[in-house]
Amino acid sequence: MEQEQIIYGIHAIEELLQNRITSIDHIYFDQSKKSTALFSLMKTCRKERLSYNLIPEARLSHLAGTMKHQGVVAQCSMLPYRSIEEIQEKLSTQSHKPLMLIPASVEDPGNLGAIIRSCAAFNVDALLLERKNTAPLNASVAKSAAGMLEHVTISRPKNLEQIVENFKNQGFSIIGAEMEGGKEPDKIDFTIPSILILGGENRGIPPYLKKQCTGFVSIPIAQHVQSLNVSAATAVLLYECNRQRSRI
Question: Which of 52, 127, 194, 217 has a 20 to 30 A CA-CA distance from 100?
Protein backbone atom coordinates (compact mmCIF):
# COMPACT_ATOMS: atom_id res chain seq x y z
CA MET A 1 0.00 0.00 0.00
CA GLU A 2 1.32 3.39 -0.95
CA GLN A 3 1.29 6.01 1.75
CA GLU A 4 -0.61 9.24 1.55
CA GLN A 5 1.67 11.93 0.16
CA ILE A 6 2.10 15.49 1.30
CA ILE A 7 3.65 17.75 -1.33
CA TYR A 8 4.43 21.43 -0.80
CA GLY A 9 6.04 24.37 -2.55
CA ILE A 10 4.80 26.35 -5.56
CA HIS A 11 7.00 24.65 -8.17
CA ALA A 12 6.25 21.16 -6.83
CA ILE A 13 2.50 21.82 -6.87
CA GLU A 14 2.70 23.21 -10.41
CA GLU A 15 4.40 20.00 -11.54
CA LEU A 16 1.82 17.94 -9.64
CA LEU A 17 -1.05 19.72 -11.39
CA GLN A 18 0.60 19.20 -14.74
CA ASN A 19 1.64 15.58 -14.41
CA ARG A 20 -0.33 13.88 -11.62
CA ILE A 21 -3.54 15.86 -11.26
CA THR A 22 -5.75 12.79 -10.69
CA SER A 23 -3.78 11.87 -7.56
CA ILE A 24 -4.63 15.15 -5.80
CA ASP A 25 -7.20 14.88 -3.01
CA HIS A 26 -7.00 18.38 -1.57
CA ILE A 27 -4.89 21.53 -1.82
CA TYR A 28 -4.41 23.93 1.08
CA PHE A 29 -3.34 27.57 0.75
CA ASP A 30 -2.02 30.01 3.34
CA GLN A 31 -4.92 32.39 3.92
CA SER A 32 -2.58 35.28 4.74
CA LYS A 33 -0.14 34.88 1.83
CA LYS A 34 -0.84 36.66 -1.47
CA SER A 35 1.09 36.17 -4.69
CA THR A 36 0.49 35.85 -8.42
CA ALA A 37 1.76 32.26 -8.37
CA LEU A 38 -0.61 31.21 -5.58
CA PHE A 39 -3.54 32.94 -7.25
CA SER A 40 -2.74 31.11 -10.48
CA LEU A 41 -2.75 27.79 -8.62
CA MET A 42 -6.16 28.61 -7.11
CA LYS A 43 -7.52 29.38 -10.59
CA THR A 44 -6.30 26.00 -11.79
CA CYS A 45 -8.02 24.32 -8.83
CA ARG A 46 -11.31 25.99 -9.74
CA LYS A 47 -10.92 25.12 -13.43
CA GLU A 48 -10.13 21.48 -12.69
CA ARG A 49 -12.79 21.23 -9.95
CA LEU A 50 -10.24 20.30 -7.32
CA SER A 51 -11.07 20.58 -3.64
CA TYR A 52 -9.12 23.37 -1.93
CA ASN A 53 -9.39 25.88 0.88
CA LEU A 54 -7.48 28.60 2.72
CA ILE A 55 -6.16 27.88 6.20
CA PRO A 56 -3.92 29.62 8.79
CA GLU A 57 -0.17 29.46 8.19
CA ALA A 58 0.40 27.50 11.41
CA ARG A 59 -1.90 24.70 10.25
CA LEU A 60 -0.25 24.69 6.82
CA SER A 61 3.17 24.32 8.44
CA HIS A 62 1.85 21.45 10.54
CA LEU A 63 0.54 19.66 7.43
CA ALA A 64 3.79 20.17 5.53
CA GLY A 65 6.00 19.37 8.50
CA THR A 66 8.04 22.46 7.66
CA MET A 67 7.69 26.24 7.42
CA LYS A 68 9.23 26.19 3.91
CA HIS A 69 5.97 25.40 2.14
CA GLN A 70 5.69 28.71 0.20
CA GLY A 71 2.03 29.00 1.11
CA VAL A 72 0.68 25.84 -0.53
CA VAL A 73 0.39 22.15 0.41
CA ALA A 74 -1.22 19.28 -1.52
CA GLN A 75 -2.58 16.07 -0.09
CA CYS A 76 -2.43 13.12 -2.50
CA SER A 77 -4.29 9.82 -2.40
CA MET A 78 -2.86 6.53 -1.17
CA LEU A 79 -3.66 4.88 -4.49
CA PRO A 80 -3.76 6.34 -8.01
CA TYR A 81 -7.22 6.95 -9.41
CA ARG A 82 -8.11 5.28 -12.70
CA SER A 83 -9.05 7.34 -15.73
CA ILE A 84 -12.49 7.05 -17.31
CA GLU A 85 -10.76 5.73 -20.42
CA GLU A 86 -9.26 2.88 -18.38
CA ILE A 87 -12.67 2.08 -16.89
CA GLN A 88 -14.37 2.10 -20.29
CA GLU A 89 -11.70 -0.24 -21.63
CA LYS A 90 -12.20 -2.56 -18.65
CA LEU A 91 -15.99 -2.60 -19.12
CA SER A 92 -15.66 -3.31 -22.85
CA THR A 93 -13.72 -6.53 -22.21
CA GLN A 94 -16.16 -7.98 -19.64
CA SER A 95 -18.71 -10.65 -20.43
CA HIS A 96 -21.19 -9.46 -17.77
CA LYS A 97 -23.27 -6.28 -17.69
CA PRO A 98 -21.46 -3.40 -15.91
CA LEU A 99 -22.40 -2.14 -12.45
CA MET A 100 -20.93 1.10 -11.13
CA LEU A 101 -21.50 3.05 -7.93
CA ILE A 102 -21.39 6.77 -7.15
CA PRO A 103 -21.34 7.61 -3.42
CA ALA A 104 -21.94 11.33 -3.92
CA SER A 105 -20.68 13.73 -1.24
CA VAL A 106 -19.71 11.02 1.26
CA GLU A 107 -17.47 13.03 3.58
CA ASP A 108 -16.87 10.53 6.39
CA PRO A 109 -13.77 8.35 5.77
CA GLY A 110 -15.30 5.49 7.75
CA ASN A 111 -18.37 5.46 5.53
CA LEU A 112 -16.34 5.66 2.32
CA GLY A 113 -14.10 2.82 3.49
CA ALA A 114 -17.10 0.64 4.33
CA ILE A 115 -18.62 1.43 0.92
CA ILE A 116 -15.38 0.39 -0.80
CA ARG A 117 -15.44 -2.89 1.12
CA SER A 118 -19.03 -3.52 0.01
CA CYS A 119 -18.05 -2.77 -3.60
CA ALA A 120 -15.40 -5.48 -3.39
CA ALA A 121 -17.79 -7.92 -1.70
CA PHE A 122 -20.60 -7.48 -4.23
CA ASN A 123 -18.64 -7.26 -7.48
CA VAL A 124 -18.99 -3.58 -8.37
CA ASP A 125 -17.00 -2.88 -11.53
CA ALA A 126 -16.05 0.72 -10.73
CA LEU A 127 -16.52 3.38 -8.08
CA LEU A 128 -16.90 6.95 -9.36
CA LEU A 129 -16.17 9.80 -6.94
CA GLU A 130 -16.72 13.54 -7.01
CA ARG A 131 -13.60 15.68 -6.94
CA LYS A 132 -15.18 17.86 -4.25
CA ASN A 133 -17.18 17.11 -1.11
CA THR A 134 -15.91 13.52 -0.87
CA ALA A 135 -13.46 12.03 1.63
CA PRO A 136 -9.95 11.50 0.21
CA LEU A 137 -8.42 8.04 -0.10
CA ASN A 138 -6.38 8.40 3.06
CA ALA A 139 -5.28 6.08 5.87
CA SER A 140 -8.68 6.31 7.61
CA VAL A 141 -10.48 5.17 4.46
CA ALA A 142 -7.97 2.35 3.95
CA LYS A 143 -8.48 1.19 7.55
CA SER A 144 -12.28 1.09 7.16
CA ALA A 145 -11.95 -0.68 3.81
CA ALA A 146 -10.01 -3.39 5.69
CA GLY A 147 -7.64 -4.37 2.90
CA MET A 148 -10.10 -3.98 0.03
CA LEU A 149 -8.89 -0.62 -1.32
CA GLU A 150 -6.65 -2.27 -3.91
CA HIS A 151 -9.47 -4.57 -5.07
CA VAL A 152 -11.82 -1.81 -6.29
CA THR A 153 -11.41 0.27 -9.43
CA ILE A 154 -11.82 3.91 -8.39
CA SER A 155 -12.02 6.99 -10.61
CA ARG A 156 -12.50 10.66 -9.83
CA PRO A 157 -13.27 12.35 -13.16
CA LYS A 158 -13.26 16.09 -13.68
CA ASN A 159 -16.81 16.30 -15.04
CA LEU A 160 -18.82 13.57 -13.33
CA GLU A 161 -22.12 14.95 -14.62
CA GLN A 162 -20.99 14.60 -18.24
CA ILE A 163 -19.58 11.13 -17.59
CA VAL A 164 -22.91 9.94 -16.16
CA GLU A 165 -24.79 11.46 -19.09
CA ASN A 166 -22.49 9.70 -21.54
CA PHE A 167 -23.12 6.35 -19.87
CA LYS A 168 -26.87 7.04 -19.87
CA ASN A 169 -26.70 7.69 -23.60
CA GLN A 170 -24.98 4.32 -23.95
CA GLY A 171 -28.02 2.62 -22.41
CA PHE A 172 -27.08 2.53 -18.73
CA SER A 173 -29.84 2.68 -16.13
CA ILE A 174 -29.07 5.47 -13.61
CA ILE A 175 -30.70 4.64 -10.28
CA GLY A 176 -30.72 7.10 -7.38
CA ALA A 177 -31.26 5.91 -3.82
CA GLU A 178 -33.83 7.96 -1.89
CA MET A 179 -35.19 7.54 1.63
CA GLU A 180 -38.73 7.28 0.28
CA GLY A 181 -40.70 7.51 -2.94
CA GLY A 182 -38.63 5.05 -4.97
CA LYS A 183 -39.31 1.45 -5.97
CA GLU A 184 -38.34 -1.38 -3.65
CA PRO A 185 -34.91 -2.83 -4.54
CA ASP A 186 -36.25 -6.14 -5.88
CA LYS A 187 -38.62 -4.28 -8.20
CA ILE A 188 -35.74 -2.67 -10.12
CA ASP A 189 -33.84 -4.54 -12.82
CA PHE A 190 -30.17 -4.41 -11.86
CA THR A 191 -29.19 -7.05 -14.41
CA ILE A 192 -28.82 -4.41 -17.14
CA PRO A 193 -25.87 -1.97 -17.29
CA SER A 194 -26.42 0.22 -14.23
CA ILE A 195 -25.04 3.08 -12.20
CA LEU A 196 -26.27 3.28 -8.61
CA ILE A 197 -26.06 6.71 -6.95
CA LEU A 198 -26.27 7.32 -3.20
CA GLY A 199 -26.17 10.65 -1.41
CA GLY A 200 -23.79 11.61 1.37
CA GLU A 201 -24.35 12.13 5.07
CA ASN A 202 -25.39 15.79 4.81
CA ARG A 203 -26.28 16.66 1.24
CA GLY A 204 -28.05 13.65 -0.23
CA ILE A 205 -27.75 13.18 -3.99
CA PRO A 206 -26.60 16.49 -5.54
CA PRO A 207 -29.15 18.04 -7.95
CA TYR A 208 -26.79 17.78 -10.93
CA LEU A 209 -26.68 13.98 -10.50
CA LYS A 210 -30.30 13.58 -9.43
CA LYS A 211 -31.51 15.02 -12.73
CA GLN A 212 -29.56 12.29 -14.56
CA CYS A 213 -31.44 9.49 -12.80
CA THR A 214 -33.74 7.28 -14.85
CA GLY A 215 -35.32 5.81 -11.72
CA PHE A 216 -35.19 5.77 -7.92
CA VAL A 217 -34.93 3.06 -5.29
CA SER A 218 -35.95 3.15 -1.62
CA ILE A 219 -35.19 0.56 1.05
CA PRO A 220 -38.21 -0.40 3.17
CA ILE A 221 -37.36 -0.05 6.88
CA ALA A 222 -39.25 -0.03 10.18
CA GLN A 223 -41.31 3.10 10.82
CA HIS A 224 -39.48 3.95 14.03
CA VAL A 225 -36.15 4.15 12.15
CA GLN A 226 -35.65 7.43 10.30
CA SER A 227 -33.01 6.28 7.83
CA LEU A 228 -30.03 4.01 7.23
CA ASN A 229 -26.42 5.13 7.32
CA VAL A 230 -25.14 5.60 3.74
CA SER A 231 -22.66 2.73 4.04
CA ALA A 232 -25.36 0.41 5.42
CA ALA A 233 -27.76 1.42 2.64
CA THR A 234 -25.03 0.78 0.09
CA ALA A 235 -24.46 -2.74 1.41
CA VAL A 236 -28.20 -3.53 1.26
CA LEU A 237 -28.59 -2.27 -2.30
CA LEU A 238 -25.41 -3.88 -3.60
CA TYR A 239 -26.49 -7.19 -2.07
CA GLU A 240 -29.71 -6.99 -4.11
CA CYS A 241 -27.77 -6.03 -7.24
CA ASN A 242 -25.47 -9.01 -6.79
CA ARG A 243 -28.38 -11.36 -5.99
CA GLN A 244 -30.12 -10.48 -9.24
CA ARG A 245 -26.98 -10.58 -11.35
CA SER A 246 -25.79 -13.92 -9.96
CA ARG A 247 -28.96 -15.56 -11.30
CA ILE A 248 -28.26 -14.66 -14.94
Answer: 52
